[in-house]
Amino acid sequence: MTTTVTHTTNHAWLMTNVRQTDGTRVDVSIANGRIAAIGPNLPREPGGAIEDGAGALLLPGFVEGHTHLDKTTWGMSWYRNEVGPKLTDRIENERRWRAQSGHDAGAQSLALARAFVQAGTTRLRTHVDIDTDAGLRHLEGVLATRDTLRDVLDMQIVAFPQSGLLGRPGTDALLDRALSAGADVLGALDPALIDGDPVTSLDLTFELAQRHQKPIDIHLHEPGEIGAFTFGLLLDRVAALGMQGQVVVSHAFCLGALPERERDTLLARIADLCVALLTTAPPSTPVPPLKTCIDKGVTLFGGNDGIRDTWTPYGSPDMLERAMLIAMRYGLRRDDDLALAFDCVSTTAARACGFAQYGLQAGARADLVLLDADGLAHAIVARPPRKLVVANGRIVARHGAPATHRIGR
């Protein structure tokens, strides 16, 4: 007889008859939000509930390594995109629209974050605009979302200067306040092409990070030789300040456009200094080479970037879709290669962002996804509805819908 586990379960219970990606049938014992054991024929705790997995495929909760929850129009009326082609066009258009429309970063980030959880994401890093017009208003909204979902979603917030650090006086002071107010990571943007002074920009960024003892996640869209120059300056500071393992470079388009010899020399330094790379795998922009990065010991993980906002109509809170887009961008077709794409939104992403106690092993936080698929590659390509999503030991979604009318407090 099977006892249905409720969404509020936070004590001992047992998930039975699930398949690991190698085909092994196992049970999963869960206690107080953690995986107590994984293996065949596990004993039931006295009085503990049982959830029959019915042979479904078992995956760890997904990891979103780079998104912008504060910007989204998720669930709102369609935004008609008529923005110009330049990066600065998008920045100014977004600032103007958010101010004129009264866009509510709190309500919108909560709607999208709940959709992420419902689709199986249990760890998430979001960049939040710190703006001299809006002040910390967007951050305050996302901090409220993090608090609402704290029992089911492990969220990191990046204090992100969308207009750069130097162009708008007072941005550095706002970033300082944002890190004191609860932001976990310091963001930055194109020190050469946006700030126009990469040395000063990077010096100030690293000084702020050191002052608050926070890691850095920098957007680097700069192409080719310009991007390589900025990258070199950044790596110099990582080495000088002992910030190995504390810096992520998002996008890093230059690594997809450099000559092989120059690229590989830069990748060797990146690996040596334990700097991680984030890609959204855009279809029409150079991207860091996935397999070369893996071969050279460079951590490369994945994320969506913005989802349904003034920058783009695209994106989805389903990280299996992002894994598929990563696989398509890199020409991955074999089942074992598709597993590399899934690593970009699971184990590798958790390691790069510093999400602790992640994975399918005893002692890890019980973040689990069940779905009907023959194997991992099939799951990525077909992206079936989630039969069950468990976050921090709680069942939060069944059959593609929230387990209750609302996820979170």
TrEMBL record:
Task: Report the InterPro entries cross-referenced here.
Answer: Amidohydro_3 (IPR013108), Metal-dep_hydrolase_composite (IPR011059), Metal_Hydrolase (IPR032466), Metallo-hydrolase_Enzymes (IPR052349)
UniProt-listed Pfam families: Amidohydro_3
Domain Amidohydrolase as annotated: residue spans: 52-397
Is the Lipid biosynthesis keyword given for this protein?
no
Membrane-spanning residues: none
Q: Give GO MF terms, alphabetically.
A: hydrolase activity, acting on carbon-nitrogen (but not peptide) bonds, in cyclic amidines
**Keywords of the record:** Hydrolase
**Name of protein:** Cytosine deaminase-like metal-dependent hydrolase
